[in-house]
Specification:
alpha+beta; three-stranded antiparallel sheet; 3 strands; about 55% helix; globular
Length: about 90
């Protein structure tokens, strides 16, 4: 019996931060878009993105009053590795 796709990530990762990081692989986005894509409040999204910036995973680019969030090279590498792990977990058997 295969592990349900939602079970594996919950076991090893906090889902919202993982979703946020992997959603940025498609390109730079506004924080509001990220919060909608990950079903997370805007304030929690900003808090996690600030933490990502502290770890060197994302950079902010200001355009007027709006910040655009983009992955750093290191962040892109981590996001790709997370995708690989998530794909492996989806194939796991109990």
């Amino acid at each position: 019996m295969a592990i349900k796709q939602k079970f594996g990530p919950k076991l090893f990762f906090r889902l919202k931060p993982v979703k946020m990081l992997t959603s940025l692989k498609s390109g730079p986005k506004y924080a509001t878009i990220i919060s909608k894509e990950t079903d997370c409040t805007y304030s929690h999204t900003v808090k996690l993105l600030d933490m990502f910036q502290e770890y060197g995973l994302v950079d902010f680019e200001k355009k007027g009053r709006i910040k655009i969030v983009k992955l750093t090279d290191f962040g892109n590498e981590v996001a790709k590795n997370m995708d690989t792990i998530l794909t492996s977990l989806a194939k796991a058997r109990v």
